[in-house]
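Ticket #4471: structure export looks truncated?
Reporter: QA, pipeline team
Priority: medium

Steps to reproduce: submit the single chain below to the structure queue and open the exported record.
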Amino acid sequence: MTITGPDADLLSAVGALRDHIAAPRFPLAAEGVADVRETRIELLNRIDDYLIPRLREPGGPLHLVIGGSTGVGKSTLVNSLVRYDLTRAGVLRPTTRGAVLCVNPADVAAATGPHRLLPAFSRDGAVRVAAGTPLTGGRPEGFTLAAHPAIPYGLALIDAPDVNSVAQGNRETGRRLLGAADSWLLVSSAERYADAVPWQLLHEAWRRRMNVAVVLNRVPAESAADVTGAFAEMLDAHLPQAAAEIPVFTVPETTLTAGLIPEYLLDQLATWLHAVSQDPQVRLAAVRRTVLGLLDDLPQQIAALYEALAAQVEQANRLRVQADLAYSGERAALHDAVAAGELIGGAALVEWQTMIGPGRVEGLLDASSGAGGTARRLLLAAVADQVAAAVARSSDQVAQAWRGVVPVEEEDRLAVTAGSRAGAVAPELEEWANRLGELIARTRMQSEEGRPEPDFRIAVLIALVLCGRELPRQRRRRRAEPPIPAVAATRRLADQVFPGGLAERLAEQAAAALDASLGALFDRYAYRHQRVLSELGVDPDAAKSLLEAGYAVQRAR
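Actual output as written to the record:
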């Protein structure tokens, strides 16, 4: 993001940092990742809503957000300060369902211009309030803009939705507005001042070095001293360094006149509002303090994101290793089966034995009978079933290891099978079988020009590789037990079809080619899982780039 403004170097550095915060994803489950995702969104909002526009236009109206818990009288306070019903007050909860941005008519252009704060929030039109019903706020991501001459020039009051509202959208909007404020006016009451939410907000404001004032509203006259004293003690206990810097205004419980608090009860608060907004230098000082507080807070936020990004990379590497182990284990088992000549068994071996038995073997060796093609398909299907089972086991292991770590919507993609029906032959195996004809012709050097090797020779060589090779292991075993009849018959038939020791040489080369084809096949299916992982967007360089972008912002200050 390229940005220009009063401080182009700092703006450019902040824009680059913003891109490095927005680009990485945190798709994998890890400890604390939900909090980090929320931190990332909040940080992006603060940069987009406040830091970039405020660096572009530091002299705009001071945005003071009036926030707090539900039912403490925020809207009534805003109306009473300007002596007009700008926002709806009442007993229904939540009363403020959308934010209302209240400005002096002379500040409307600044509040709606291209460098305005909270640019993502729409403005429902600049309304000069003179008559009509109170404004209730627009949709959660928008403002209702109310212009009234009673609002001091240079001050933008934002009546924010309740930060503890039962409506999630209201809560999120309220907190987002507080994150994009130059100053806060935190409103509580005699009944709510000890709630957790106000104190969380105060802690956050102090951490960000913001200008904050507190209004204790609706305080009964007979208990005013007790309430203000108790609040002062809590402030001194929870925020001892901030206690002297946070002004606290007490508004007594009173009878409203036309829905408004009597003006004299708000004199001190009104004086403070004029003091922080009327002098441009005072406004700039408040803005500078808030901007510097946000910049000072960036390293802590970046550190949290950095650790989370590093954890994502570790998690992704762990998942990658788990997938590699799952597939390499099954691949190694098939490699051993090929090396041992034990890749076929069960019904397929029995059927092959029948095809080469007395009375049927002659038909197999008749190139015109079609029996060779049938045998070839039988043997390839048997291998394909073994491979499909191995791939399915690998896929199940990966799916089990990754479940709950990858996003739920990606888990369906983890089910990888080598064929949708029994006997489905992978292209790698078909290609291997086709190359066997070329191998036979090259080795025998007797093929007729332009004519492929008959299927029965290919079938016999396939069977020899699958179950009939004379390997050292078989020779040792033969001393202890006789070979399986189908195995012995396959060897005899192979010696008949490929005499003079040719059978063993062909079987060795064909087995090596099959092992390579199985490796390519397993790589193809393993890649599907690796692709799922890659598409999640875990960038191993993102953490370092984020850290460097954060350093660049601090150097540009």
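Status: closed, not a bug. The export was complete when the record was re-opened. Leaving a note from the reviewer for reference: The first strand starts at residue 62 and ends at 68.
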